[in-house]
Design goal:
Blueprint (H helix, E strand, L loop, with lengths): L2 E7 L2 E6 L4 E4 L14 H23 L3 E13 L7 E13 L3 H15 L1 H8 L3 E10 L4
Parallel strand pairs: 5-6
Antiparallel strand pairs: 1-2, 2-3, 4-5
Helix pairs in contact: 1-2
């Protein structure tokens, strides 16, 4: 896997993935940015959430669960000192569907946390306290 990150000006950078997709990252005005994109550490959280949600949805599809929406809300704490690394990350999945089985959702979240999500497992191995939780919302067409 490869990527490039190119400085554009101030505190703005453009990252390009090996697959050819680009994303703008920018700093706050106080740090020389123009607030035109997420911060690099926010990108790390977004990537972790994307990695884990990909796993959860893949497993729920394989178990033929009728999911109509899935999102993960992420809260993180950072150290007060430099480097301001993440000290804890909480991932809370909200899975909406028709007749979803709790044991399937629970297992999908557990497997992502323990076996499949490279991002969260890597951060956990680096000392970040990572927790996972979930809730199921029954879909209503009303």
């Amino acid at each position: 896997m490869k990527a490039t990150v190119k400085w554009t000006d101030g505190a703005m950078f453009v990252g390009e993935s090996g697959s050819g997709h680009a994303v703008v990252m920018d700093g706050s005005p106080e740090l020389g940015g123009r607030n035109l994109g997420p911060r690099p550490m926010e990108m790390l959280l977004i990537g972790t959430g994307g990695c884990s949600t990909y796993d959860v949805m893949s497993m729920l599809k394989k178990s033929r669960q009728q999911v109509v929406d899935c999102r993960v809300e992420i809260e993180a704490e950072r150290a007060d000192a430099v480097p301001a690394v993440f000290t804890s990350i909480k991932l809370h999945f909200i899975v909406t569907g028709v007749g979803l089985k709790d044991n399937h959702v629970k297992r999908a979240v557990e497997l992502s946390a323990e076996k499949y999500c490279s991002a969260s497992i890597m951060l956990g191995a680096a000392g970040v306290a990572i927790s996972h939780s979930y809730e199921i919302v029954e879909f209503s067409a009303d």
